[in-house]
Amino acid sequence: MKPVVVLCNCDTVKEALNDNGEEFGARGYMPLLDKMCNGGHGVIGSNGERWKQLRRFSLMTLRNFGMGKKSIEERIQEEAQFLTEEFKKTNGQPVDPTFYFSKAVSNVICSVVFGNRFEYEDAEFLKLLGFFNQIFRGFSSVWGQLYNIFPKVMGKLPGPHNSLFQHIDAVQEFITEKIKMHKETLDPTSPRDFIDCFLIKMMQESKEPESEFHMLGAINTTFDMFGAGTETVSTTLRYGLLILLKHPDVEERMQKEIDDVIGRNRAPCIEDRSRMPYTDAVIHEIQRFIDIVPMGVPHKVTRDIHFKEFNIPKGTTVYPMLSSVLRDPKQFKYPNLFNPGHFIDENGKFAKNDGFMPFSTGKRICVGEGLARMELFLFFSTILQNFTLSSPVDIEDLDLTPELSGFGNIPHPYKLCFIPR
Predict the structure, then answer these.
(1) Coil/strand/helix, residue 215
(2) What pLDDT does residue 146 have?
(3) Are the CB atoms for 385 and 379 separated by under 8 Å?
(4) What residues contact residue 206 under an 8 Å CB cut-off, 6+ apart?
(5) Is the C-alpha dihedral spanning 38, 39, 44, 49 positive or negative?
(6) Domains along the chain?
(7) Of 280, 305, 351, 359, which is most buried with the most CB atoms under 10 A?
(8) Strand pairing of 387-390 and 417-420?
């Protein structure tokens, strides 16, 4: 119900978020997000000093627990092996990959946040992943979008959007319980995981009335890490395999590169990526093509600013339309087609592209970008090293357009067979 500014194309988004990062760096108002983060707590929904402190803390803690280092790479490799074993158990029968991926991806972030992974059969874990799946779908549904446009009206009406809030509450209850359990066994001299580090920070700042490290902050920051670290990467893997089913020639070429560089007798590692330009290009192109958060998450301007011949008043919500960047014809030759050639130069080497912005850019770039990129490379290459993908339906009938397109782009449900190589 308020005016918003929408930024379109690569140059405009970069100029706003990178060159004028300070002015465009605040989080804009989005009723669903506001409801989810209890009025601006946690990293994703907060602003000002609170955001600075929580983001700095989260980045530092993730790094201390191995993000971008060998230790987290080993966790992902281990999880990729568990996933491979799960796929072997399917005996080449058609399966829906949705929860296989969310279990594996979530376990990586769980080991950092909660200090342990869950067994794939764990009923509580499966319930939790079901909630996250429904939250992401709910945000992208018509009901979710209506709530964002008419929050006051929708807040009073019955409808599926109310179950979305129940799912959010259920996840936050689970996290609250975990934090209480951590409190009872906390050893301030040797933190086990993200939650321990947050609790220690709460103790250190307990005398400061203005501290951002309190129970609400702990719940929402953990929720952000856990949720963002699960749903986007697992959806990218699921959507990516659907694309590879549709393009068996791409899958075949990736497998040839995997066989040449890694072989079949050892696990893929992150060092392999620089010697695998085609696989790297395909993963970038999958991310570009699926365009997972098409509108980006809203920003707002922190002061009156004159931008591109327009005066934008302080506090205006700004949508950096990531879709218009990922499909910018100036950056990509075939913006609406899946084509790994977008990321390969004339010498067959991997080519960077300014239009590659699935994690957004600037001050609000996704905290977990490094982790997500590592996961995508290791999971994709491990799966294709061990299996050939096969579709139980004619590939002509596979639909690559999203089933839901709102906050996120979500692929149609599908089944595939993992045929051991």
Answers:
(1) helix
(2) 95
(3) no
(4) none
(5) negative
(6) 4-420 (1.10.630.10)
(7) 280
(8) antiparallel
> 383-416 in b/e burial notation, b at 16+ Cβ within 10 A?
bbbbbbbebeeeeeebeeebebebbbbbbeebeb
Average pLDDT over residues 201-229: 92
- 29 vs 19: CA distance, rounded Å: 22
Q: What is the pLDDT of residue 419?
A: 98
Residues with Cβ within 8 Å of 78's Cβ and at least 6 positions away in sequence, in order, are none
- What is the C-alpha to C-alpha distance for residues 342 and 350, in angstroms, rounded to an integer? 9
Cα dist. 142→95, 137, 403 in Å?
A: 28, 10, 12
**Per-residue DSSP letters for 67-110?**
TTSHHHHHHHHHHHHHHHHHHHTTTT--B--HHHHHHHHHHHHH
As a whole number of angstroms, the distance between CA 237 and CA 79 comes to 14
pLDDT digits (tens, 9 = 90+) for 109-136: 999 899 899 999 999 999 999 999 999 9
Mean pLDDT score of the chain, rounded to an integer?
A: 95
Q: What does the angle CA 98 – CA 100 – CA 106 come to, to the nearest 5 degrees?
A: 95
Mean pLDDT of 316-338: 97
- Which residue is associated with the tokens 């790479």? 73
Binding-site residue set for heme: 366
Helix axes 98-113, 123-140, angle to 10 degrees: 110
Backbone angles phi, psi at 254, to 5 degrees: -65, -45
The DSSP code for 122 is -
pLDDT tens-digit series, residues 189-203: 999 999 999 999 999
What CA–CA distance (Å, rounded) separates 412 from 421?
Answer: 27
Q: Looking at residue 286, what is its pLDDT? A: 98
pLDDT band at 62 (very low <50, low <70, confident <90, very high): confident
Instruction: State the helix-helix crossing angle for 161-184 and 194-204, rounded to 10 degrees.
Output: 70
pLDDT at 229 over 90: no
pTM higher than the cut 0.85: yes
pLDDT at residue 67, as a whole number: 67
How big is the chain, counted in residues? 421
Q: Which helix (H) or strand (E) holds 288?
A: helix 277-290
The pLDDT of residue 76 is above 90: yes
Closest Cα to residue 221, out of 71, 332, 61, 381?
61
Q: Are 331 and 353 in contact (CB under 8 A)?
A: yes
> Residues comprising the binding site?
366
